Predict the structure.
Amino acid sequence: MTGSTPFSIEASDNFKRSFKKLAKVHRDSFVAVIGKTLEDLIDDQYPNNSRNEPLPGKSQLPEDWTFHKLEIRFAKGASGQIRLMYLVNATTCTIRLVWIYSHEQFAKRPADDDLKSVLREILDF
């Protein structure tokens, strides 16, 4: 995208912890797949395998932020179905990584209370 401002990626503490857990299990090839996925997010923040994700409870994000979940097929089985939750602010060209987990860890997504707590920590709302 010539002439457009590049997006920056910021990893939350929760993302770093959850990534570290998965990286211990899946090793180097997992790290490479996620690295490539994050590189791709810089150019396309809304790929076909992502969707807007509803907020927990009656939460509302600060203005200009949107919440998304990206599905990544890393390997066969539930442990190979990875989900990346992230926030996008198109105004400031910022992507904040919220949580990465396998379908084996959470069939749908982390508990609403946990998710709400992490989002508040990241965005101070």
User: Anything to note?
Assistant: The first helix runs from residue 13 to 43. The two ends are 32 Å apart (CA to CA). DSSP finds two helices and five strands in the chain.
